[in-house]
Amino acid sequence: MARDSRYDVLFEPVRIGPVTAPNRFYQVPHASGMTNSLPRVRAAFRETKAEGGWGVICTGACSIDQTSDDTPLPMATMWDRNDIRAHALMTEAVHRHGSLAGVELWHGGASVMNRASRLPPLSPSGIPWMATHIGFMGNLRPKTMDRSDIKDVLRWQAEGARKARTAGFDIIYVYAGMGYLGYEFLLPEYNKRTDEYGGSLENRVRFVKEMLDVTRDAVGKDCGVALRVSLEELRGRPGTRQQSEAHELIELLSDHADLFDVKMDSSPTDCSASRFTGEGSHEPVIDFVKSMTGKPVVGVGRFTSPDTMVSQIRRGVLDFIGGARPSIADPFLPRKIREGRIEEIRECIGCNICISSWHDSVPVRCTQNPTAGEEWRRGWHPERVEQAARGERILVVGGGPAGLECALTSARAGHEVTLADAGKVWGGRLAFEKTLPGLAAWNRVVDYRLGRLNDMTNVSMYLESALGVDEIIDLAPDHVVVATGARWMRMLYSSMEIPVGQIDHPEVYTPDDIAAGRLPSGPTLVFDFDNYYYGGVLTEHLAAQGLAVSYVTPAGQASAWTIMTNELPLVHKALSRRNVPVTTLQMLKAFDGETATLAHLFTGEETRVHCRSILIVGLRLPRTELLDALEARRVDLETAGIKSVTTIGDALAPGAITHAVHSGHKAARELGMGGTRRLYLRDTPITDCEPGFEQAEAAE
Ligand code: ADP
Ligand code: SF4
């Protein structure tokens, strides 16, 4: 299909100093959780995006020195020759597809805890980041940088830039965002210096300017020099000559950088979840940048619509369409636009599971794209599926995220697929969840798969078809895949931190009851020990129906795990907006229809709360009825020629939607393998240099 000429502008080449990007699709630096210890995993992950048409592919934060050490969070390093070799795998892979490779050289300043290096963190004035989340807490405060420290960092940046050039990078970053060292110099809250690096904006900008200049002196003839800078705070502060300090900063640095990569100041606003923020949310902060510089500008905003992208370019907001999450969810997004296959774009749903991977210190996982991070270790490609040796008849029972993904990937592998669901609509749990506050975009998981399945001739789909063993035996497929999901339990919670007991009372509800349209009456207490989004979202939902709702959890915060997805601060704001009181560290003990008895998680001290209904968002267990029935009729299945029964998704192990999709994908890739579990390849660090090797000084 020919592409719409409206989108031609997206495919124009753009110069970045001495190098030229082949188009305007720019994968901005983003954490991959892969580090230099998984160099092949990382190279394949980034290469897939270059193959999919992204014109620039960047690394995540890459430390220039051991004083910038975020361990155990995954970070790349550019310290020695082994690092150069590890990165070269990625740059070679990216260049194979004609794209440019960028490296986000990085010094974390006071925002890293140097847990492994045990060197004092560096900062302009010794002001520490004192996080409220344990994952970012540390108890070594930063030292105030003296002039020799500043010189050291400038030297490390120059050395890092030369090493990066040797590794094959085309674009070298200076990083002044997200609370890291360059940013700390820009903000007077961190920077209380009285020398030429503190005070006026000109002085606060000096360190970043010098970082850019040493980078240019080191590699500027060969590589583009990019500045990544957070502008949210500075945009809100009036300048002395221009509208804001952000305006003045861009003006002051315009001649020093070849490209401006502009963003917000903290992860929850920079990489905001779709529950709370729509596409293009950065625009009000970064819309002015092009008016202050002739240099190209890249920005992000979870762009997945080509019309929005074109509008950003045409209106002079951006020169490059930056993407991190859209490039993870669909590495082939640019190519699909170029080839006029818009409806095939696997749009990011904004769930931020990818970000949770970094917080979890593991390679990136994605809800929409189960192949993310699996390109090398499992050999999965986001667009191509290995063709089955011979097409077989696959019956998938259950059309939730797991069943839909399994059906689609099996069909792509060349099988004859039948998909059946008991419900009136496709989507399983999402059929209801998409109607809840902020979750509409999550239904892209269903829309994308249904769209593709509807286009395929080797797929038959049946709704309102609750299948039992007899129906399955009548259909007599070669393989049965059970994707029947899970159900929520009325179980309580013990101070041993495990589910225990149960309350049986007609006014005790589970999320399944709410999904089925049963609404509590009177003041309702939500007791949440699932800890992810669902308890918080259902609380919002009930409050929106006009119920007086209170939220109780044994965790320390509401929806505690959402700290991993950047949502936690916004969950608390949302509950507060709806006047929901939040009580933490409490277990629900008893309920008599009028009063709930709570007990403190640690002290056991009891309190009583008046409420008429209780919603427990706690444990989910697999729906195993069908599986058990199939198990009991094993001989009949064999007689009917059914070779295997595989369970996937929540029916196998209840979890987040990302796990269900991955499970469905994995089963489809492994169908017909006779039940063998395929192990993934284990990557190893590159260690050509002996331990104790001196840091490589420069390009060799
Ligand atoms: P997952 O997240 O693993 O995909 P879901 O709970 O979202 O799980 O989806 C499970 C789907 O399976 C639901 O749509 C449900 O209607 C369907 N289902 C459950 N049991 C049967 C059955 N016996 N026959 C057909 N569909 C079923
Ligand atoms: Fe988008 Fe969610 Fe995938 Fe991240 S995990 S890229 S937010 S769909």
Assembly context of the chains = single chain
Mean pLDDT level:
95
What ranges have pLDDT less than 50 throughout 5 or more consecutive residues? 695-700
> In percent, how much strand structure appears in the residues?
15-25%
Spatial arrangement of strands, main beta sheet: 3-4-6-9-10-11-12-13
Any overview of this molecule?
The protein is an alpha/beta fold and 700 residues long. An 8-stranded parallel barrel has the order 3-4-6-9-10-11-12-13, surrounded by 5 helices. A 5-stranded parallel β-sheet has the order 16-15-14-17-30, sandwiched between helices. α11 (306-314) links the parallel β12 and β13. α2 (81-95) crosses α3 (147-167), α5 (201-219) runs parallel beside α7 and α15 (401-412) packs parallel to α24 (657-670). The protein is globular. The site of iron/sulfur cluster (SF4) has 13 residues, from α12 and α14.
Keyword list:
700 residues, alpha/beta, eight-stranded parallel barrel, five-stranded parallel sheet, 24 helices, 31% helix, disordered C terminus, binds adenosine-5'-diphosphate, binds iron/sulfur cluster
Topology:
Layout: E1 14-16, E2 19-21, E3 25-27, H1 39-51, E4 56-63, E5 76-77, H2 81-95, E6 100-106, E7 122-123, E8 143-144, H3 147-167, E9 171-176, H4 181-186, H5 201-219, E10 224-230, H6 232-235, H7 245-253, E11 259-263, H8 267-270, H9 283-286, H10 289-292, E12 297-299, H11 306-314, E13 320-323, H12 325-329, H13 333-338, H14 353-359, E14 393-397, H15 401-412, E15 416-420, H16 430-433, H17 444-454, E16 459-462, H18 469-475, E17 479-482, E18 486-488, E19 491-493, E20 499-502, E21 508-509, H19 511-515, E22 524-528, H20 533-544, E23 549-552, H21 568-577, E24 582-583, E25 586-591, E26 595-600, E27 606-610, E28 613-617, E29 620-622, H22 625-632, H23 634-639, E30 644-647, H24 657-670
Parallel strand pairs: 3-4, 3-13, 4-5, 4-6, 6-9, 7-8, 9-10, 10-11, 11-12, 12-13, 14-15, 14-17, 15-16, 17-30, 21-28, 22-23, 22-28, 23-24
Antiparallel strand pairs: 1-2, 18-29, 19-20, 25-26, 26-27
The protein binds adenosine-5'-diphosphate (ADP) and iron/sulfur cluster.
